[in-house]
Design brief:
There is one protein chain. The chain is mainly beta and about 70 residues long. The chain has a single domain, classed as SH3 type barrels. Helix content is about 0%, strand content about 40%. It is built from no helices and five strands. It has a five-stranded antiparallel beta sheet, with no helix packed on it. A hairpin with a 2-residue loop joins strand 4 and strand 5. It starts with 13 loop residues before the first strand and ends in a 10-residue tail after the last strand.
Length: about 70
């Protein structure tokens, strides 16, 4: 497949940094300093400081360590 977004809705995944984890949710922050609670059970276990790729309020993957520099 050759596309940059979700197959279903065409939205893009958003990288976020984990601030804290509580059960199956994590408080996360994006590059614009916006914070939101994200469901992380699909990528658990998750630790503070990790970078996750999110879509629709759900973490769908981890961002490779090499790509983390773009968020700093």
């Amino acid at each position: 497949m050759d596309h940059d977004g979700c197959v279903t809705c065409s939205d893009a995944g958003i990288p976020v940094r984990v601030i804290s984890v509580e059960g199956d949710d994590a408080l996360c922050e994006d590059a614009a300093d916006n914070r939101a609670r994200i469901a992380v059970e699909l990528v658990a276990p998750v630790r503070a400081g990790e970078i996750l790729l999110t879509h629709g309020g759900v973490a769908i993957g981890r961002v490779a360590a090499e790509a983390e520099e773009d968020l700093r």
